[in-house]
Amino acid sequence: MKKAFTMVELIMVIVVIGILASIAVPRLVATRDDAEIAKATATVASVRAALSTERQLRVLRGDFAPVDSLNADGNGAFSTFGNGAGGDTGRTVLEGSVAACANAADTGCWAAAAPTYTYRMPTGVGGTVAFSLQDAGGNYDGRFTCDTDDENCQKLTQ
Hints:
Elements: H1 7-61, E1 70-71, E2 80-82, E3 88-92, E4 109-113, E5 116-120, E6 128-134, E7 140-145, H2 151-157
Antiparallel strand pairs: 1-2, 2-3, 4-5, 5-6, 6-7
């Protein structure tokens, strides 16, 4: 008598593997989106810290002009600080490169156009978050803020 698996046993194993795969694959996709959001959250925190440092450097020099742009250099969304008169200070905002959106279909990237910097959320999340260097009155306040009522803004700032 030969010992082998029956057809029923093989089908049961395939069904169990299918169930496990149907649970695991969506979680892996969600993990990728979570990683993109964590990366964007770290970028927001880094930009805010860099703005704070730039403000302190300016105050120490007696220069109270607000930062009016985070100039894009083609290699990333943020390059150098604007000096309050539309010029460039030459000081780097972030040491590392930040992914800039190359075309309208890109997600998980930044589209920079001072004073607004828009983050396009990953495909699984959808939407955009617009950060600005201006307050509600249109005055440059040197802060990197978004609409806190927006759900995506909350994901990136909390």
